Amino acid sequence: MISEPMVNRNGHVSYGQDDNCYARFHKHPYKGDMHDFIEIIFPGARDTTDRPIKESDKQRFSRQWEAYQKGEEFKAEGYPLENWQAMDQGMVREYNHKRVYTVEQFANMAESNLENLGLGARTLHTKAKAFLEAHKDTKAAEKYASQNEQLKSQMEALAKANKEMKDRLDSLETKKKGKK
What we know:
The chain is about 50% helix and about 15% strand. It is α+β, with helices and mostly antiparallel strands and about 180 residues long. The radius of gyration is 25 Å and the shape is elongated.
């Protein structure tokens, strides 16, 4: 099953979500000089695109471009396959080799690319979708828990600063009474 072609706001025709693909900016010799190139791979796909960048690539893959500009490697966002108990380490290495790094990438992968991942990929694909559906609410809860922890630490810091100021004020008042 091949995705329907879509024309996005930048005028690019795509056959899937760009969020799901692996885009890597790198230097490559071209016409006698080093130039910026982009490699675009959809998880599980055999074909890749490796070409000189266009201005629109910087917008289309802005997070990856920003990481490249800083000299950092862009990491796929989502639940890492290494942490997913449905896969052993050998499968994780194999899927990483085929540019699949997160459960989200795998669950949103085009059906046509599943055959490139070998036996059991369709079953795992279904499990990945079920895993994400089950953890949808958990993600929101984790976000709120993290925010709650940040607020608690801010409150503790403010309480400590408040106590220090109170102690200093008490000390000044004691000194002032001693001078009278």
